[in-house]
Design goal:
The structure is a single chain. The protein is mostly helical. It has helices spanning 36-40, 76-82, 85-94, 100-111, 121-125, 133-143, 157-182, 196-205, 216-228, 236-246, 251-262, 270-281, 287-295, 316-331, 338-351, 354-358, 366-375, 383-403, and strands spanning 4-12, 15-22, 30-31, 60-63, 68-71, 74-75. A hairpin with a 7-residue loop joins β2 (15-22) and β3 (30-31). α3 packs parallel to α18, α6 runs antiparallel to α11 and α8 (196-205) packs across α9 (216-228).
């Protein structure tokens, strides 16, 4: 934990209060207000946590001004270009890049946890066929706590590690099964001879009637999408997982809570909303109308895939994703994809517009991901499940870090109360 390097003084009602200031290894200094209420009898107020650090962490760092994203110090563009998802999983979980032997052991462990308990197949059949796959994932992942009792004791580091491996390994299987169920096709079991991304594509697109050979370039693009979504500091869904875990809830319940939070269109649901928006815009000629709507305060419409709480520059993931979109569409021979053409024209128009420049609204990770996923054959309803699959390692790494923190306390925010003060009950005949 960072040590105080200087002091901030708060003056209130003629009293002064000294608050320690902690200096991080990167990012802004942090005023430690843990003793503020005890000393001054006041709360701080920050509903969206725009200026509040909820924890200390060593996993991921974002410099929103520079558009920089580091995982354990390694820049995301280097990891996306030189590493692969399971190696990034190891890095996020354990803090260092693995040796060749460590990586081989880790990949074998994950590969051998990819099947789910056969009885869990019944859960899927309880859903309507047209259920959103995110609803299925929330349900099935939460239900894992009913099957994997030998990895729910969060006080046991061995069980914590098994739960981490099981969740990373089984999320692609569960996501693929949710997809297969939604289209009325039989489930496809995982295969140990395929790597993580190829296995997911095989489970989604193989059918019993014929052999399905995974295109290695698509598998590489899929793996890169997983890597780009792996972790992202204390975003809404990660904070949900941390808060759920602070009560001692089991890991499967905590990850199910994270999936539920990610589903929202302001967060992980933006990739689905973005592609639907691009299709609604239809062609570059209609862009001025939508730009005007996005700027109109009386219109709730926002450019999905644009803006970010932290990035006030390009989201570095969007930059890599845009390159990947061009590669995948070229590979698939998707000439002149109208949606990609609209996306590129929209990005150009928005970045040239003073409104977006002043508010520092740039494309985020969700702006191009949907274009790639649709080109690969996924329906828009599978976009957020793929985000959830990718983010599971980030959620579980942050969950593990919090449980290993000796200062762990249950998260219990206070409030600015503006309701009625105490008053007596009025009998109904007197109302
Ligand atoms: C993710 O936190 C993370 O790290 C998340 C994530 C991760 O990896 O976990 O990066 C993944 O969630 C990416 C974001 C995906 N969401 C979207 O693309 C949805 C569209 N974007 C917005 O809803 C919005 O930009 C947010 C939610 C992403 C951020 O919202 P903030 O930080 O709360 O900013 P805000 O809503 O206060 O907006 C600031 C101003 C407002 O105008 P004013 O009231 O100041 O006049 O910018 C405007 C907003 O109206 N604005 C937009 C806009 N986003 C913000 N105007 C038009 N279009 C937009 N997309």
């Amino acid at each position: 934990m960072a040590e105080p390097t200087k002091t901030a003084t708060l003056t209130l009602d003629g009293q002064s209060y000294d608050l320690p200031v902690l200096s991080p290894s990167a990012g802004p200094d942090v005023i430690d207000i843990r003793k503020l209420y005890g000393q001054a009898g006041v709360f701080t107020y920050d509903p969206g946590f725009t200026s509040t650090a909820s924890c200390d962490s060593t996993i991921t760092f974002i410099d929103g001004g520079k558009g920089e994203l580091l995982h354990r110090g390694y820049p995301i563009d280097q990891l996306a270009g030189k590493s692969h998802y399971l190696e990034v999983c190891y890095l996020l979980l354990y803090g260092e890049l693995p040796s060749a032997a460590e990586l081989e052991k880790f990949e074998d462990t994950i590969t051998n946890h990819t099947m789910i308990h056969e009885q869990m197949h019944n859960f899927f059949r309880g859903f309507r066929r047209d259920a959103h796959p995110m609803a299925t994932m929330v349900g099935v992942v939460g239900a894992m706590s009913a099957f994997y009792h030998d990895s729910t004791d969060i006080a046991d580091p061995v069980q914590r590690e098994i739960a981490s491996h099981r969740l990373i390994a089984k999320m692609p299987t569960i996501a693929a099964m949710a997809y297969k169920y939604s289209i009325g096709q039989p489930f496809v079991y995982p295969r140990n001879d395929l790597d993580y991304a190829a296995n997911f594509l095989h489970m989604c697109f193989a059918v019993p009637a014929e052999e399905y050979v995974v295109d290695p370039i698509l598998a590489r693009a899929m793996d890169r999408i997983f890597t780009l979504h792996a972790d992202h500091e204390q975003n809404a869904s990660t904070s949900t997982v941390r808060l759920a875990s602070s009560s001692g809830a089991n890991p499967f319940a905590c990850i199910a809570a994270g999936i539920a939070c990610l589903w929202g269109p302001s967060h992980g649901g933006a990739n689905q909303a973005c592609l639907e928006m691009l299709k609604e815009i239809g062609s570059p000629e209609n862009i001025p109308e939508y730009i005007a709507r996005a700027k109109d305060k009386s219109d709730p419409f926002r450019l999905m895939g644009f803006g970010h709480r932290v990035y006030k520059n390009f989201d570095p993931r969007a930059t890599v994703m845009k390159q990947s979109a061009d590669e995948v569409l070229d590979l698939l021979g998707v000439e002149n994809n109208p949606v990609l053409a609209t996306a590129k024209a929209l990005e150009e128009a928005a970045l040239a517009d003073p409104y977006f420049a002043e508010k520092k609204l740039f494309p985020n990770v969700d702006f191009y991901s949907g274009i790639i996923l649709e080109a690969m054959g996924f329906p828009t309803s599978m976009f957020t499940p793929i985000f959830a699959l990718s983010r599971t390692v980030g959620w579980i790494s942050q969950w593990k870090e919090q449980l290993e923190d000796p200062q762990l306390k249950i998260g219990r925010p206070r409030q600015l109360y503006e309701g009625e003060t105490a008053r007596d009950y009025t009998d109904i005949e007197n109302r």
